[in-house]
Q: What sequence folds into this?
């Protein structure tokens, strides 16, 4: 149906279906899935999707608006902070004389459309079942990428048949999380958290037009409006609401002032202006980050969806927060931050949005003192980052949980999953290598690398065999607890110490004044650096030169072997199938562990060791984590197995886009979405870094005719096109000075503003002759 009201253009999604995610029909039991899949966010505000959240008589699912950094503990006895949901600002009731309209909608007419190009969610529905009015309804909602405090809701009703009195009520629903009210005024509400001393303010304005003429509310309250009139055929009713949300990290009696200023600025623009600026901001993000695939529509859709959520998950202006495991789209993991951010998300931001990457790393710098405190409390030096982090950086991993058998289980990740410190250092080094951001490196990054290196040198203890061991840890494979010398942990620790030594050398050479100040403040001298060198040389890494295999941890090879093929088609993880205790006695792996090393540090695998380790560990992995498949895909692509990589790529994408894998009601799996991008750009394009440029080793799957994307490298922007039909790799340096491009060991110069075209046939010849792969970021 063509919308003919004043909001017609705004309520019409992008024409190109490649930018749209659409779901029609209505199933109550799947509503939480829709709410996640169609969530929108801007890094400060996150709003779950779904028609049932704000229209109709039955409100079976509580709506959610999330505000980044708004943490509190739910009860006085709780020790685990949670992300606090804000009030439902989308709440609308449309009332007929005998009750709510849309209590009997045509279910097949209900549709959700996520316009990823514009960053807008549309819904539509029709009522035509013996009600006084036949109505066609469309809505729009957005959270502005231009002004992140601002959200907007538009609703348009077309009266198709019937005459009846009609009332539209717009209000703010209560939260299901205890917040203390501070202020309640017609255009503003303010609250504070009970225990964390945070304040929240929401200012709002609303209006309603009937056939283009604005109507005054018939009733008005605190953030509440009501309009009543007689509806008749052909009428077009347009409702708009604009809100502004502010968060303060201390209780502030003036917390509403900034919200009112943000609202006033948005109202001055008007709803059209808010949309225009929001769309312009999204257009800029897509110009920098879009990945285009020809020949595989499903892969294109998966990449667009992943990039949409990645772009909406971060606020580059707010170093107080980071990206949680479910971003701002759901309640799972309480809004906590894990290693997911540094390993699965930072590469995307570093290479497409360096400002956002810098902000996320500044969050880790801001929480460095909490990491130092955790290490000291456990008897070590340096910085041990929290496995689960909220706003302060203190360890907030819950101590216990309820298992599938309803038994209380201790959670050891907070104390034993220590590879997080090396993961943070890895991301810092990635950013430094890709951006050459000297200010960040000297003021923040170097200190993170040095303090995490100090932790590992303290943590790896020298024993009688002459080797240093790291005992009692959990690697990425969380099915096995309290293990010794986990290969991923130890190799990353060794790498971290080596980067610490390199950082110290670099500071001394290029910025001696900064080195003198920093080393004096940290108490870091040459005696300790010598100890670091000895530690890096003697850490046990579990590599067997005879088999070319890394043993995942000491004793892994002696555990019971399980044929996972016999459990194909299962709907639950393997630790549920076998039981937690038996699983720990088997070689069943929860997620990529040694394979994670292969994805992150391929240079440590000599000769054919990469293939041997992949072939050994792949059939032992049960993929009990959403993080696993993406790293398997990246590793497979880099090993020259694009079809295997594509299978993992599709499985990673299906976690949030299909209903056949895991429940997604708790939010999108943002790390898996980051992994989709990683597999495409680092895997299929074979992107890796050199000190003076970028290297490529393309491995496109058969279904992909062409792959095109943009990346940033050291103040430059490049457009890269890999064309299977033309058998070419084309690099255009769109911004910045000339730079080196490597294919194998061949070095080429990409001139500014011109295209560098290289033959894929030549690339294949180099691979046949055994040119070694380069490490990724």
A:
């Amino acid at each position: 149906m063509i919308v003919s009201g004043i909001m017609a253009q705004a309520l019409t999604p992008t024409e190109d279906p490649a930018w749209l995610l659409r779901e029609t029909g209505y199933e109550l039991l799947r509503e939480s899935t829709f709410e996640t899949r169609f969530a929108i966010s801007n890094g400060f505000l996150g709003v779950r999707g779904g028609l049932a959240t704000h229209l109709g008589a039955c409100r079976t699912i509580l709506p959610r608006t999330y505000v980044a950094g708004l943490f509190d503990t739910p009860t006085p006895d709780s020790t685990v902070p949670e992300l606090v949901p804000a009030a439902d600002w989308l709440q609308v009731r449309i009332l007929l004389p005998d009750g709510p309209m849309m209590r009997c909608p045509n279910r097949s007419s209900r549709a959700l459309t996520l316009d990823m190009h514009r960053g807008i969610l549309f819904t539509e529905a029709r009522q035509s079942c013996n009600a006084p009015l036949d109505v066609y309804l469309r809505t729009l909602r957005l959270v502005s990428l231009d002004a992140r405090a601002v959200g907007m809701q538009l609703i348009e009703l077309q009266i198709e048949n019937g005459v009846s009195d009609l009332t539209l009520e717009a209000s703010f629903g209560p939260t299901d999380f205890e917040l203390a009210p501070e202020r309640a005024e017609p255009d503003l509400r303010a609250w504070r958290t009970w225990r964390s001393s945070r304040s929240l303010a929401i200012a709002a304005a609303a209006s309603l037009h009937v056939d283009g003429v604005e109507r005054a509310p018939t009733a008005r309250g605190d953030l509440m409006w009501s309009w009543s009139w007689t509806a008749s055929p052909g009428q077009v009713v347009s409702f708009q609401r604009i809100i502004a949300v502010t968060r303060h990290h201390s209780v502030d009696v003036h917390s509403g002032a900034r919200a009112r200023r943000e609202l006033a600025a948005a109202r001055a623009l008007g709803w059209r202006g808010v949309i225009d600026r929001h769309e312009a901001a999204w257009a800029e993000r897509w110009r920098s980050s879009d990945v285009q695939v020809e020949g595989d529509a499903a892969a294109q859709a998966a990449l667009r969806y992943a990039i949409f959520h990645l772009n909406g998950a971060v606020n580059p202006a707010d170093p107080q927060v980071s990206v949680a495991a479910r971003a701002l789209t759901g309640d799972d993991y309480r809004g906590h931050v894990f290693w997911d951010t540094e390993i699965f998300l930072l590469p995307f931001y570093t290479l497409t949005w360096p400002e956002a990457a810098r902000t996320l790393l500044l969050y880790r710098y801001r929480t460095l003192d909490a990491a130092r405190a955790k290490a000291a409390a456990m008897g070590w030096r340096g910085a041990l980052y929290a496995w689960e982090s909220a706003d302060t950086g203190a360890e907030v991993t819950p101590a216990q949980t309820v298992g599938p058998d309803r038994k209380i289980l201790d959670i050891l990740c907070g104390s034993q999953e220590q590879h997080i410190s090396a993961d943070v250092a890895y991301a810092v080094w990635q950013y430094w290598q890709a951006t050459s951001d000297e200010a960040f490196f000297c003021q923040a990054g170097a200190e993170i690398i040095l303090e995490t290196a100090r932790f590992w040198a303290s943590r790896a203890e020298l024993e009688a065999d002459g080797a240093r061991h790291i005992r009692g840890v959990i690697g990425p494979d969380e099915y096995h607890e309290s293990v010794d010398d986990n290969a991923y942990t130890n190799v990353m620790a060794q790498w971290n110490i080596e980067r610490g030594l390199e950082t110290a050398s670099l500071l001394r050479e290029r910025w001696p004044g900064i080195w003198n100040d920093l080393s004096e403040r940290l108490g870091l001298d040459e005696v300790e650096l010598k100890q670091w060198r000895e530690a890096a040389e003697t850490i046990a890494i579990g590599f067997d030169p005879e088999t070319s295999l890394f043993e995942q941890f000491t004793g892994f090879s002696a555990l019971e072997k399980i044929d996972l093929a016999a459990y194909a088609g299962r709907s639950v993880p393997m630790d549920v199938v076998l039981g937690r205790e038996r699983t720990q006695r088997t070689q069943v792996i929860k997620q990529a562990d040694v394979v994670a090393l292969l994805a992150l540090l391929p240079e440590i695998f000599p000769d054919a060791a990469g293939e041997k380790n992949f072939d050994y560990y792949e059939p032992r992995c049960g993929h009990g984590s959403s993080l696993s498949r993406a790293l398997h895909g990246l590793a497979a692509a880099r090993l020259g197995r694009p079809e295997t990589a594509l299978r993992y790529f599709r499985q990673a994408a299906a976690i949030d886009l299909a209903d056949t894998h895991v429940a997604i009601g708790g939010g999108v799996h943002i790390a898996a979405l980051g992994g989709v991008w990683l597999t495409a750009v680092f895997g299929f394009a074979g992107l890796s870094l050199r000190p003076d440029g970028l290297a490529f080793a393309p491995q496109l799957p058969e279904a992909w005719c062409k792959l095109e994307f943009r990346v940033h490298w050291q103040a430059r922007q490049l457009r890269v096109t890999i064309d299977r039909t033309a058998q070419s790799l084309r690099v255009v340096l769109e911004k910045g000075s000339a730079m080196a491009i490597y294919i194998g060991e061949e070095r080429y110069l990409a001139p500014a503003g011109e295209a560098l075209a290289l033959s894929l046939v030549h690339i294949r010849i180099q691979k046949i002759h055994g040119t070694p792969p380069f490490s990724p970021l």
Remarks:
- Residues 17-288 form a domain with the Beta-galactosidase; Chain A, domain 5 fold (CATH 2.70.98.40).
- The chain has three domains: 17-288, 290-684, 685-777.
- Residues 13 and 115 are 6 Å apart (CA to CA).
